[in-house]
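Key result, reporting period 2: structure in, sequence out.
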């Protein structure tokens, strides 16, 4: 069963959605703003944000020497 959480826009978000939003925010250079009303969602957001700081965004182009 997938846990969902109401976000500020009234739509439901899964734990994976919050995790991905955290990664997306750090890759976009946004400040960390976890949800305040749901500790589980906040934890998933924080985890995603931290992982995003470690890994490169999928759109970043790597250049290899020839």
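The corresponding designed sequence is given below.
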């Amino acid at each position: 069963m997938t846990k969902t959480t109401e976000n500020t826009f009234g739509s439901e978000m899964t734990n994976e959605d919050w995790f991905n939003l955290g990664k997306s925010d750090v890759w976009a250079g946004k400040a960390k703003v976890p949800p305040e009303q749901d500790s589980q969602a906040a934890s998933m957001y924080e985890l995603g944000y931290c992982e995003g700081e470690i890994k490169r965004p999928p759109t970043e182009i790597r250049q290899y020497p020839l």
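The chain is about 45% helix and 10% strand. The mean pLDDT is 81. This case is discussed further under Risks and Mitigation.
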